[in-house]
Amino acid sequence: MAVSGAAESPRLNRLVQYVVVRSDLVHKLSWPLGAVVAQGCHAAMAAIHLHYTDGDTQRYLAELDDMHKVVLGAPDEAALSALSETLTQAGVAHKLWIEQPENTPTCLALKPYPKERVQPLLCKFKLLK
C-alpha cells in the first residue's frame, strides 16, 4: 500500500494553472476563436512571468511534460472583474489580461497553485465551451 499512496500523493498536490476566459467574446461578440485563445495564452504567460521566482511556478515549469491547465468560462466582463477582485481579496496571485488598445478585460490567469488551494474560489465557473 505504501507504493500506491506514494503514487497518489503527487496528484493530491498537483499544480494547476487556471485560466478564465470571457465566453461572451465568442458566443455574443463574435470574436474569432483564435483571438480568444490568444488572450488566454497572453494571460497565462504573463502570470508565469510575474511569478517566475515563486516556488510553485518553478516546480510547475520543471514538470514541463506534466503541466496541467484548466480553462474556465466567465459569462461576461462583470463576472471576470468580480472574480479578479475576489482573488485579490483572497491573496491569490493572478494576472487580469486587458487587451490594448481597446482597454478590454478579456481573461485572467492564476499563477500555478495546488488545485485544492484555489478551486473553491473558482467552483462557480464551468469549463469553457
Task: Please provide a written account of the structure.
With 129 residues, this protein is an alpha+beta fold. It has a single domain (14-127), classed as Bit1, CATH 3.40.1490. 48% of the residues lie in helices and 24% in strands. The protein contains six helices and six strands, in the order H-E-H-H-H-E-H-E-E-E-H-E. It has helices at 2-12, 24-27, 33-50, 55-62, 77-89, 115-122; strands at residues 15-22, 69-74, 94-99, 104-110, 113-114, 126-127. Strands 1, 2, 3, 4, 5 and 6 form a six-stranded mixed beta sheet that branches. The longest helix is centred in the first third of the chain and has 18 residues, at 33-50. Mean pLDDT is 92; it is low at 1-9.
General form? globular
CATH topology: Bit1
CATH superfamily: Bit1
- Number of beta strands: 6
Tell me the number of helical segments per DSSP (H or I, 4 or more residues long): 6
Largest sheet: 6 strands, mixed
Radius of gyration: 15 Å
Number of domains: 1
- Provide the CATH architecture: 3-Layer(aba) Sandwich
Structural class: alpha+beta
Instruction: Tell me the span between the first and last alpha carbons.
Output: 39 Å
**Can you write the helix and strand succession as a string?**
HEHHHEHEEEHE
CATH class descriptor name? Alpha Beta
Overall average pLDDT: 92
Work out the helicity level.
40-55%
Uncertain spans, ≥5 residues at pLDDT below 50?
Answer: 1-9
Please indicate the percent range of residues in DSSP E strands (runs of 2 or more). Answer: 15-25%
